[in-house]
Amino acid sequence: MGLPDNFEFEFVSDELDGSSVGEGGVVRPRYNNKLTLAEAIEENVLSRVYLGVHWEFDGREGERNGRRSPNTSAVPSHGWPRFGARFGR
User: pLDDT digit string (tens) for 51-62?
Assistant: First the structure.
């Protein structure tokens, strides 16, 4: 059983964390946002459409797949294979 849609967490940007340094040595401001799991899924689906890397139906199918297998990890337990290993390098 996965997390409920109303599970709440705080998102903190990797780049806008209040300590990373941007152009000209300026410390970037901290961006954090409290979200529910359902809100985060929706933002993720739509952000990929706005970026132009997916159609909305792709994101919705990804959401359905994720909900069907909530107890599985996206990363194999033994880790990802090295790229060259697939090609005999």
Answer: 998 899 988 998
